[in-house]
Design brief:
By secondary structure, the protein is mainly α. Helices cover 57% and strands 4% of the residues. The structure holds zinc ion.
Length: 201
């Protein structure tokens, strides 16, 4: 009722972990998750740090690459299939490449998250995006030639010069925007989780 603060009133602060009443002036840690006594905060922080350190340890990089490539294959097929079915090269659909690669890398690595996995994911996604651009353009070029009565067949694994000439067809600023979105998704997904208790109020 009154504001004199007998220690059990509404102003009583309890540790969010052990429930002990925190006396005025007692060492404490205020976080977004509540106020903790010093002992609980240190204990929780070290537990959390162990869990978070483990997310970047014993990363199975071979399996991470395999997972990323599998994700890229799925994403590339999805984008190319969408384009063949709709006859529209809708670049935003390419975002699925970044998401599929990012998830593939994390799952392949054994649910690990690390800067190296982020770089790996971004590299595989970029390659997947460029190859998907090749497949999409290849489909349209095939159609254009077939419509003129001169059907051609470009290889699925072309020599580099042909590859880049085909990719360059109609490559514009929007493709760079879509590539940036793909890279953003691929980079974000394997990012290490930060320590939330570290942010003090
Ligand atoms: Zn406590």
């Amino acid at each position: 009722m009154d504001e004199s603060g007998s220690g059990q009133g509404e102003n009583t602060v309890r540790c969010a972990e052990c429930g002990a009443v925190l006396q005025e002036g007692q060492d404490r840690q205020a976080t977004e998750g509540g106020v903790f006594c010093r002992a609980c905060f240190e204990g929780l922080t070290s537990q959390l740090r162990q869990v978070l350190d483990a997310q970047g340890q014993d990363v199975a990089y071979g399996a991470a690459v395999a997972g990323g490539v599998a994700g890229a294959a799925l994403g590339v097929l999805a984008w190319w299939g969408f384009t063949v079915l709709t006859h529209v090269a809708f670049g935003l659909v390419a975002v699925v490449i970044g998401i599929a690669v990012g998830k593939g890398v994390v799952i392949g690595a054994g649910n690990k998250r690390h800067r190296n996995l982020q770089a790996l994911s971004a590299a595989i996604s970029a390659a997947g995006f460029v190859y998907a651009s090749y497949l999409v353009n290849r489909t349209f070029i095939h159609k254009a030639y077939a419509d003129r009565g001169e059907p051609i067949a470009l290889p699925l694994l072309p020599p580099p010069e042909l590859f880049f000439r085909v990719v360059a067809v109609g490559f514009g600023i929007m493709d760079l925007v879509f590539l940036a979105i793909v890279l953003y998704e691929a980079w974000k997904i394997p990012a290490p989780v930060e320590i939330p208790l570290g942010r003090t109020a």
